[in-house]
Specification:
Shape: globular
Strand order of the largest sheet: 1-4-5-6-7
Strand content: 35-45%
Distance between the termini: 44 Å
Number of helices: 2
Largest sheet: 5 strands, mixed
Length: 119
């Protein structure tokens, strides 16, 4: 049996997704292509969400994780080529901050990039 190792950020993101994505299959193996990597993929009957997880330790002022629209678009297009049955795709960015005294917070940018099949 293969054992998986997760970071604290990945575990916090999974917990967040299990609370918010109750109707969809959460795939922890993510999606990787030459353009980059989505940490997690949430899949529904005809839609999918690529989830990008960024983990930081809190040191002074906390900033939201950013992923460029162009990078999200390129990774999303690669996913669509590999998964032609998807009619609707979105990309979410989850920022996990590990603070003092073992506190962990997750903030989400839902729909940082979206695509829908026309037709």
């Amino acid at each position: 049996m293969e054992q998986k190792v997760y970071s604290i950020g990945q575990l916090a993101a999974l917990r967040y997704l299990h609370e918010t994505e109750t109707e969809r299959d959460i795939r922890t193996d993510g999606f990787e292509c030459p353009e980059g990597r989505a940490s997690i993929v949430c899949v529904g009957p005809d839609d999918a969400t690529l989830v990008f997880v960024s983990t930081k330790r809190k040191r002074g002022e906390s900033k939201e994780a950013t992923v460029s629209q162009n990078k999200l678009r390129r990774i999303a297009m690669c996913y669509l080529v590999d998964n032609p049955g998807v009619c609707k795709l979105s990309c979410d960015v989850l920022s996990v901050t590990i603070g003092n005294c073992a506190t962990v917070s997750v903030s989400a940018t839902k729909g940082a990039f979206t695509w829908e099949h026309e037709g």
